[in-house]
Amino acid sequence: MSLEGTEDEAAGWSGGVIGRMARALAVAGGALMLATAIMVVVSVVSRWLFKAGVKGDFEMVQIATAVAVFAFLPLCQWRRGNVFVDTFTLRAPAWFNRNLDTLWDLVYAGFAALIAWRLALGAIDAISSRTSSMVLAIPTGWAILLTAVMAAFLAVVAAVTAIRRYRSAS
Question: What is the pLDDT of residue 81?
């Protein structure tokens, strides 16, 4: 089973194990955001009708949004959907742009790994100190740990896209 897909597969929804994992993670993030949006609507309508919304709705929105953002990043990288500015490289040769993209993918992988490491340390601290949200007492450490795992996966995805781009340049 291949860990990476071809350029054509990466442009679509498939692309080996990593591409499928990135897609599944993004779909889960989308479902989480949909559930969050529904909860916000229920809370707003309840405040309007009954003068009482969903207790702790802002805490759930904060946690769900953070988790969902990290869920979307790997697919965005896999499909090369990140914003880039080519003002200075517009007229550069294709080989130069491919090598520059490879370099930036590696830089992105490094920063994603750094973020994953720091989030993991923060999660360990939050779990051990039993840090929780103020209203609902939701343990926040587990959400932080989940984002750390997704940031680590993003680092893998960025490294694989760099390798794939480097191989396509050869």
Answer: 84
